[in-house]
Amino acid sequence: MAHTGSCHCGAVEIEVEGTPEAQGYCHCASCRVHSGAPVAAFTLWGKDKVRVTRGEETIAGFNKTGMSDRRFCTRCGGHVFIDHPGLGMIDVRVGVLKDFDFQPAVHLNYAETVLPMRDGLPKLRDFPAEIGGSGETMAE
């Protein structure tokens, strides 16, 4: 199944194929500052599952730490996706995708939260151990 999405002005369009590898919320300071929100909802896809279908020439990026290459539209500044080269994954923020059935399963970087959420989902202190985090969970 394919899902489509776009930046705020529509100059950039993307398509994702299949189902994401992971869905959830990130509470890290970097995601909060970048999104302008107290928490960021993410969907992680394999790089081969994400395709820019229009406006690639208007995409620019910013990579503060080497871990996350945040890609945005140069016309409207709207978020498009975040490339995580070390993981081989692309984070397409939920708000970019049209008609996507978001099924969050985890909270990441919950030690940095400014908006506690009591939803019964696992709260990881940082990242899963499989990708270099502690894998430690926290109480709601």
Total of helices: 1
CATH architecture: Beta Complex
**Strand share of the residues?**
35-45%
Principal-axes shape call: globular
Structural class: mainly beta
The overall pLDDT, averaged over residues, is 95
**What's the order of the H and E elements?**
EEEHEEEEEEEEE
Secondary structure elements and pairings:
Layout: E1 2-6, E2 13-17, E3 22-26, H1 29-35, E4 40-46, E5 50-54, E6 59-62, E7 69-73, E8 79-84, E9 89-91, E10 106-108, E11 123-124, E12 137-138
Parallel strand pairs: 3-10
Antiparallel strand pairs: 1-2, 2-5, 3-4, 4-9, 6-7, 7-8, 8-9, 11-12
Written account of the structure:
- It is a single chain.
- The chain is mainly β and 140 residues long.
- The protein has a single domain (2-138), classed as Metal Binding Protein, Guanine Nucleotide Exchange Factor, Chain A.
- The chain is 5% helix and 37% strand.
- The protein contains one helix and twelve strands; from the N terminus they run βββαβββββββββ.
- It has one helix at residues 29-35; strands at residues 2-6, 13-17, 22-26, 40-46, 50-54, 59-62, 69-73, 79-84, 89-91, 106-108, 123-124, 137-138.
- The protein has a seven-stranded mixed β-sheet. It has a three-stranded antiparallel β-sheet with strand order 1-2-5, with no helix packed on it. The chain has a two-stranded antiparallel ribbon with strand order 11-12.
- A hairpin with a 6-residue loop joins strand 6 (59-62) and strand 7.
- The N and C termini lie far apart (34 Å).
